[in-house]
Design goal:
Chain lengths: 735, 111
């Protein structure tokens, strides 16, 4: 391995250079130009246009909307001329974004009018597609589902399944759940297990709720903000205004990531741990805090269950051992730990990347422990944030009412896949990309065993290849409904333009389907608003959020809201350090998780010498600012101009002995297979680690976005809850 | 997370007692197995532990249970056993008291 000290810490000369640039940029940027500034820093000067509204003379009307992509949930203004969307820009009154939005949201103007969009139902006939009417398509789906009940009267429950999500709106999700659950089919597969399911589950086990324990505005009250794997500038750029505001107030920003990223530009210190070793680093910090009596004894005594177990688990992690595991020098581990022990207010922002390892639930438990130990779980300037998530709770009663009385327990995706492999699933409602899962070839093969696959998509993409019927879905400006964001906010999105062709909103399709397959049990609803009101009627937590309140707010309403008059409840979810666990304390002793410990991620080259010989490098992947996973932003030519297909980022030391030069074609190989990519050599990533973008997909018309699906070479490793996408072994060879 | 296990020995005794006295069709060999069986944690037991401690489960079925668990994650409900080839509803009814169910949910999702 190369000289780690040079690249693993704040001493990294590359890092120092970019930090200087960032500070200069930061001083130049005025508060009102934050949105455009962030975008220009990540995408270049072309992005400066993003935040600009068109002059009034070019616009007939302007409609309040929101972006459907990530959980920042930017509210927007959509401008329409002659019945056509001509522009979208961020709503400057949004408390969280200040009017910023990222290029993904902007791409919707082009995608809405894409010539590649599917506008009418299509039925497969051999190798061809036949256009049919929506009514024919609906009857076909309903008939197939009802036939399952006829064919398997005593054993039908797990023979119909759905792959969520239904991000188009909360009402769509509710309509789909009502339709299937009232018909006796429980298997709606949430996307959490390929997303942040493990960190959400660990938060729930430790603190009693799976959502972010505090909101972003608390960062301004902190002394230190730790961005743990949270590449905010790249993944959630509208939030960067809060980082800038925090810096203005003197908050020290510490960033942990094995690569220098756009977020590095905005931090005071970056530590670069080896991927998947975060838990070991935190245990080392905890050990030092305990040894040097830098923790809050009173808080521990009154608010934590499991401190002894934690202390015992942390004891082996001396600074030297932590340095050996994480590649961060021991003196830096010690300095970082002491700085946390000596500051009073630390807020910790967990990136989605923490959930990408098979040790992630342990890591999140240990993060909770660190914040608890220093008395930083609740209060001004304190807490933990989860960059994704934020779905308001309170729908348990709704789910209890709208179900078949004999509904069987739900199976998760892995269990449904097990059944698909054995040809037991007869109907699959495919609402999202199956390519979200690792070893996508295995998933595709299993889905191909299903008798009838309905796809609710937008384009002739990879999912359509598996479908027997396509009923195309509406896009964001063509539907209305509520959505939620990472700050526990609920936002209402208005319809802007009519739906084209015979495209359909998800809530409408599942309402129509529900009325056909539930034998009269589906409620009489005919709009997204009526479905929303169904939830409000039965769920006390939603009483305080009438639609009118949502429509008036440029930010959305922060849940929970017990009454319409109650102000937004930003900040900690746990006032008075009373957690939502049975005894109100932080739970570190969790039998279902086993003892507190750190383990190498599955397949790590560091866990096995034989594996290290064959696949010596550590694989990591992630998003880039212009793409949303591997799905429809790939169909935007605007996004393609910023994309380069498959590429692999590696440190020059990593390929020194392979004779590989910058820009060469290489094979990125794992135990499942290989893909061809260009190599980008940079000292901004740890030697021995490679990184590749996650979005390329084969089926789209633009060379910049096209490429091999990286999930097809990601081994099928899981922890108890979630799939792993990073941290296993790989190698590079010359192509 | 669910727990089955509170006073499980008492429940097990009462269950077997009920089974044996209620006139259900149980062979002499099955009666012996049921009385000698022991409770195992369905989410941590090895194939050997299943086969050794749980009545009516032979080595092959035990291996299929472990294979299912490794492939699909923790059991959330005991009814999931019905997904496994060779595990019948009748077996499920009889064997419920022999399984301690303590595991993690599959996919808590907040997005």
């Amino acid at each position: 391995m190369a000289d780690r000290k040079k690249i693993s810490s704040s001493q990294n000369p590359e890092k120092v250079k970019i930090t200087e640039i960032s500070r200069r940029d930061f001083l130049k940027a005025g508060a009102t130009a934050v949105g455009a500034g962030i975008l220009s820093s990540t995408l270049g000067t072309k992005a400066r246009l993003f935040a600009a509204p068109l002059p009034a003379e070019y616009v007939d009307r302007e409609v309040d909307s929101c972006c459907q992509f990530c959980q920042v949930r930017c509210t927007t203004k959509v401008q329409v001329k002659d019945g056509r969307v001509v522009n979208v820009y961020g709503n400057s009154e949004n408390f969280w974004t200040g009017g910023a939005m990222c290029p993904k949201g902007k791409s919707m103007v082009e995608l809405t009018y894409s010539p590649h969009r599917l506008l009418y139902p299509l039925m497969r006939e051999g190798s061809n597609w036949k256009r049919i009417s929506y009514q024919q398509a609906l009857d076909l789906v309903a008939g197939r589902i009802l036939k399952v009940k006829d064919d398997f009267p005593d054993d039908y429950a797990h023979r119909v399944a759905m792959l969520e999500p239904l991000w188009e709106s909360r009402e769509s999700e509710l309509a789909a759940k009502m339709a299937l659950r009232l018909a006796g089919f429980p298997d709606l597969c949430s996307p959490g297990d390929a997303c942040i399911g493990s960190s959400a589950t660990a938060l729930k086990l430790c603190l009693g709720s799976a959502v972010s324990p505090t909101t972003l505005d608390e960062i301004l009250n902190a002394e230190i903000a730790i961005l743990w794997g949270a590449n905010i500038a790249e993944i959630y750029p509208p939030y960067m205004r809060w980082i800038n505001l925090a810096r203005e107030k003197g908050v020290k920003i510490v960033y942990l990531d094995p690569r220098s990223t756009p977020t590095s530009n905005f931090c005071d210190l970056q530590l670069m741990p080896r991927p998947g070793t975060d838990g070991a680093l935190i245990l080392g910090i905890i050990r030092l805090l305990i040894h040097e009596n830098l923790y809050d004894r009173d808080y521990v005594a009154s608010h934590i269950n499991g401190f002894e177990e934690l202390a015992q688990a942390a004891e082996p992690y001396t600074p030297e051992k932590v340095a050996e595991i994480t590649w961060i020098p021991a003196n830096e581990v010690v300095a970082f730990a002491r700085s946390l022990g000596q500051r009073k207010r630390t807020i910790l922002w967990m990136g989605g990347s923490i959930s990408r390892y098979t040790n992630s639930m342990q890591t999140v438990r240990i993060i909770v422990a660190l914040q608890a130990l220093t008395g930083n779980l609740s209060g001004p300037g304190k807490g933990i944030m989860n960059v994704q998530g934020g779905k308001p709770g309170g729908d348990e009663k709704f789910m209890e009412i709208y179900r078949d009385p004999n509904l069987e327990p739900r199976l998760n995706f892995r269990k449904v896949l097990y059944n698909m492999k054995r040809s037991r699933v007869k109907v699959l409602l495919l609402n999202a990309s199956y390519r979200r899962y690792p070893d996508t070839n295995k998933v595709r093969k299993a889905i191909s065993n299903v008798d009838f696959v309905l796809y609710r998509g937008f384009f002739m993409d990879e999912e359509s290849q598996l479908a027997h019927l396509i009923i195309p879905a509406t896009m964001v400006y063509e539907s209305e409904g509520s959505q939620y964001g990472a700050q526990r906010q609920v936002v209402w999105r208005n319809r802007v333009i009519p739906r084209p062709g015979e495209t359909l909103e998800d809530w409408r399709f599942y309402t129509d389907l529900g009325k056909k397959i539930t034998r009269g049990a589906f409620p009489s609803v005919n709009s997204a608003e009526e479905i929303y009101e169904l939830l409000r009627k039965v769920s006390p937590a939603w009483k305080g959020i009438p639609i009118e309140r949502l429509k008036k707010s440029p930010t959305g309403v922060t849940w929970p809201g017990a009454s319409p008059d109650q102000p937004d409840t930003r900040g900690t979810l746990y006032p008075d350090n009373r957690f939502l666990t049975p005894d109100g304390k932080v739970q570190l002793h969790i039998p279902a998780l086993g003892p507190i410990k750190w383990k190498e991620p599955k397949g790590s080259p560091k866990s096995n010498k034989n594996k290290a010989k064959e696949f010596p490098l550590i694989f990591t992947q992630g998003k880039v600012v212009q793409h949303w996973q591997q799905t429809y932003t790939n169909w935007s030519s605007y996004m393609a101009q910023f994309s380069e297909g498959n590429y692999v980022q590696a440190h020059p030391e990593t390929v020194r002995d392979l004779g590989i030069k910058d820009g060469d074609w290489v094979y990125l190989e794992t135990k499942l297979g290989k893909l061809k990519a260009r190599v980008k050599l940079a000292k901004s990533i740890l030697p021995g680690v490679v990184w590749t973008p996650s979005h390329p997909a084969p089926a789209n018309p633009f060379s910049g976005n096209s490429g091999y699906s990286i999930n097809s070479i990601i081994p099928y490793y899981w922890d108890k809850v979630s799939a792993q996408f990073n941290g296993f072994g790989c190698r590079l060879t010359r192509a | 997370m669910r727990k089955i296990g509170l006073q499980r020995f008492t429940c097990l005794f009462l269950f077997v007692f009920f089974l044996l006295t209620a006139g259900m069709t149980v062979s002499a060999e099955e009666k012996k197995e049921l009385l000698e069986g022991k409770t195992v944690n369905i989410n941590t037991a090895t194939a050997e532990e299943f086969a050794k401690n749980v009545p009516l489960i032979d080595k092959e079925l035990a291996e299929r249970i472990v294979e299912y668990r490794e492939e699909t994650g923790d059991f959330q409900v005991l009814e999931e056993l019905l997904q496994i080839d060779g595990f019948t509803r009748k077996m499920l009814r009889r064997l419920k008291p022999f399984f301690l169910l303590e595991g993690l949910g599959g996919d808590e999702c907040t997005c």
